[in-house]
Amino acid sequence: MGNSIKETKRPPYGIIAVLMVGAFIAFLNNTLLNIALPSIMKDLDIDASTVQWMTTGFMLVNGILIPATAYLIQKYSVRHIFLAAMGLFTFGTILAGFAHAFPLLLTGRMIQAAGSAIMMPLLMNVMLVSFSVERRGAAMGVFGLILMAAPAIGPTLSGWIIEHYDWRMLFHFVTPIAAAVVIIGFFLLKDKKEKVNIHLDVLSLLLSSVGFGGILYGFSSAGNKGWDSPYVYGTIIIGTISLIVFILRQLKQEQPLLNFRIYRYPMFALSSAIAMVVNMAMFSGMLLLPIYVQTIRGITPMDAGLMLLPGALVMAIMSPITGKIFDKIGARPLALTGLTIMTVTTYFFSKLSMDTSYAYLVTLHAIRMFGMSMVMMPVSTNGLNQLPARFYPHGTAMNNTLNQVAGAIGTALLVTIMSNRTESEAKALGEEAMRHMTEQPTPEVIAQMKQQIAMKAMLEGINYSFLISTFIAAVAIVLAIFIKRAKQAEDPGEMKPAAKNVTTAKLAQN
């Protein structure tokens, strides 16, 4: 990559534009599905713990494949990587669009993930190499604006499609656009890659896949199987051991699959930790809100999508603004302000009732997204700014891997907490109802009572999950206190020859 796109006065805007369109389609597909989850649950007769695999399965594949992106970016040209990624994404979209059973739908979704896993690290790396540190905040802000347009359009478009058509139309809608992007990329991307002497360590890739995959699968299965299941704690233990062996192996290699030495740079390490915590908390809103408004409140998919629109627009508009502010004042003030807003609004979401007003939900979600806009891009950019340029592929791959892992763990954890709380609350409410019953109820009364108990129990489960998210978000505030403005560190690989020359010069003088 370093030989393919060098930092110049004029960045390669054509390449960046094509990559952004591809990334936009991948992002749009993600946000389209959030509103569709209740419809998929009903149509395929599956529960929340199963349908969450549409989100966590996507992240599982991302978590497994993203570690290899650092190798791919260094080995192959932008053109080859982009065409392979978008080709996989398009095939997965077609397969999911014609799925009539959940396993086939999930397979298509995971093939989509195999393509999109490569897109974000590739685009981020091109952006980092193309813009200087001084201009990077504003550039990343514009990049954020374009990508945040997907969450703005996605839920509303999804709601309209689901209200008028079958949920499979969400995939049929994306297919021709994705295919067109592949064709455009084929003709427009012409960059060449010089031959690079780098080899893929298959054992590292295997350890990485078992490590990240085992941990993600374990957490994702907890909602269905329970934390005491051998499948859950067994896969988490195997994944953790494999991950430890993988990290130790990477530290010993000259050309690691993922370079964990980048954690020697404190601002990158801190930004990575904050991003993971925020991702865990963020997915509570993305997953729980659509379930609440459609299942409990009976709000139509279209109105549910419109409810999320103002928040997504706020985030899109704020992205370039926070990018410019970041260039001037750094990440710390932005992160502390944003995380405080995010924590407070998440707490208010833990107080939802059976008749919380639509306007209140719209406003609270918009304020939450306003806070979020100040956190993710400034914090991650600040961390990456400290890395020497040759570590950019490893930095972007590491960030994207851990963000996917954190998001999947957060999603699985919160859905499991919601399911367990719902189950225990339903049992308690049922027992209480039986105690207060004075005469034998009719079947109609029993059915009505069961429905009311189920709704109240699910509401309690959702509120409790949001409360846990509040504590998770509060952890990020504590971490953000230690953020400092990062300056690019000297490359230790480039310092050695220089030091040698100085020593030689001194010996010559003597």
TrEMBL record:
The keyword Transmembrane applies. It comes from the Bacteria. It is a multi-pass membrane protein. GO terms for molecular function: transmembrane transporter activity. Gene3D superfamilies: MFS general substrate transporter like domains (1.20.1250.20), Multidrug resistance protein D (1.20.1720.10). InterPro entries: EmrB-like (IPR004638), MFS (IPR011701), MFS_dom (IPR020846), MFS_trans_sf (IPR036259). SUPFAM superfamilies: MFS general substrate transporter. Keywords: Cell membrane, Membrane, Transmembrane, Transmembrane helix, Transport. It is found in: Cell membrane. Its main location: membrane. Residues 15-488 form the Major facilitator superfamily (MFS) profile domain. Pfam families: MFS_1. GO terms for cellular component: plasma membrane. The chain crosses the membrane at residues 12-33, 53-73, 80-105, 111-131, 138-157, 169-188, 200-219, 231-248, 268-292, 304-322, 334-352, 358-380, 464-483. Belongs to the major facilitator superfamily. EmrB family. This is DHA2 family efflux MFS transporter permease subunit. The lineage of its organism: Bacteria, Bacillati, Bacillota, Bacilli, Bacillales.
